[in-house]
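Now for today's protein.

===
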Amino acid sequence: MTQLKLNENIPNFILPSTTGETFSYETLQKEHQSWHLIIFFRGAWCPVCVQDLKDLEENKSYFESKNVHLITISTDVS
């Protein structure tokens, strides 16, 4: 497993998105010149995760005001 140190850039990764498109971290970095907070969650079947995601959505403007772009990743397969 790769270990990252503080202030190191993470490698690019490409994943399927919920819209059926492909998500590329490298492309996102070009579109959003900000900090990125990447949150991994278990899945839509997890009530705690669903509540946490709702809380994040409700507070999205707070993160945006701090120049932080939220990214959520799940292992759910649709």
The first strand starts at residue 14 and ends at 16. The mean pLDDT is 89.
